[in-house]
Amino acid sequence: MAKRPTPAPADGFASWSTQLRKGIIELMILSLVDQEQLYGYAIVRELKERGGLIAGEGTVYPVLRRLEADGLVSAAWSDEGPAGPRKYYRITQAGRTFRDRAWTEWETVAAALNDLGGKDRR
């Protein structure tokens, strides 16, 4: 009988990386829909083009629904174009306030990491 290969030990990095990305997805989406009104799949594409930051639609659409429920984005359906109806998202004033606070927090955390020598580890 063939012996099964032993799985590689989990070092926890994949889980940590996933949690980090989940933590900043709202900030990234709010920044995108502040630049222009976008539909869901266009947001997925934009995030992938900017470094493969998001795995796909299964991540983005639940966040969009939560942002809409929280009043941070508004959404409207459009029938224009050959692809049929699409739901377009735009940031609200509450979303801009949240985004600005989130950016400030992100900058604070990034500065603290750099002060601890994070930039020297590259």
Radius of gyration: 19 Å
- Mean model confidence by pLDDT: 86
* CATH topology call: Arc Repressor Mutant, subunit A
- Number-wise, the strands total 3
The first-to-last residue Cα distance is 46 Å
CATH homolog superfamily: Winged helix-like DNA-binding domain superfamily/Winged helix DNA-binding domain
Which architecture name does CATH use? Orthogonal Bundle
**What is the strand arrangement across the widest sheet?**
1-3-2
Q: Total helix count?
A: 4
What is the class in the CATH system? Answer: Mainly Alpha
Helix/strand class: mainly alpha
Shape: globular
Share of helix, binned: 55-70%
For the sheet with most strands, the description reads:
3 strands, antiparallel
- Tally of domains: 1
Strand content: 5-15%
- Unreliable segments of 5+ consecutive residues: none
Order of SSEs: HEHHEEH
What does this structure look like?
By secondary structure, this protein is mostly helical. It has one domain (23-114): Winged helix-like DNA-binding domain superfamily/Winged helix DNA-binding domain (Arc Repressor Mutant, subunit A), CATH 1.10.10.10. Helix content is 57%, strand content 11%. It has helices at 13-35, 40-49, 57-69, 93-115; strands at 38-39, 73-78, 86-91. It has a three-stranded antiparallel β-sheet with strand order 1-3-2. Strand 2 and strand 3 (86-91) form a beta hairpin. Helix 1 (13-35) packs across helix 3 (57-69) and helix 1 (13-35) packs across helix 4. It is globular. The N and C termini lie far apart (46 Å). The model has no long low-confidence stretch (mean pLDDT 86).
